[in-house]
Amino acid sequence: MRASLTIFAIALIASGVAPLPVMAQAEPPPQRIFNLIVYGDDPCPKSEGDEIVVCARKPESERYRIPKKLREKPAVSGGPGWGSQVATMEQVQRQTLPNSCSAIGSNGFTGCAAQMLAQWFAERRMQESKGEP
């Protein structure tokens, strides 16, 4: 295997098919390149000598704004969080648990007194704070 690979390489070199190095460019690139954003009617600066100036024009209303890339919020990946899913499940199942004040399930009636007391305390706090929750 190795001998046949060596013979193939020698045959390529002898036939003149060997890859040649690519010639370098004769002219070097410009020394300085400027990319600027100008707002409203501001003039684009003139280039001097060997430099290149590229200007992008935006409206005057965008001058002091946060850039669009930083303004947009990233999309939430993975859907709702674990805590909100548990809270939803607890809220749905609360009707069948004891102290829920409902006619569904056993012991549903036991929470009616607690619910009335909580409402009474909330109304009392509202009266004491003069309508502010």
Residue stretches low in confidence (pLDDT < 50, at least 5 long) are: none
**What is the quaternary state of this protein?**
single chain
Structural class: alpha+beta
Distance between the termini: 87 Å
Describe this structure in words.
A two-stranded parallel ribbon has the order 1-2. With 133 residues, it is an alpha+beta fold. The chain is elongated and about 90 Å long. The model has no long low-confidence stretch (mean pLDDT 77). The chain contains four helices and two strands.
Task: Describe the structure concisely for a colleague.
35% of the residues lie in helices and 11% in strands. It is α+β, with helices and mostly antiparallel strands. The protein has a two-stranded parallel sheet.
Topology record:
Blueprint: H1 2-15, E1 33-39, E2 52-58, H2 68-71, H3 82-93, H4 112-128
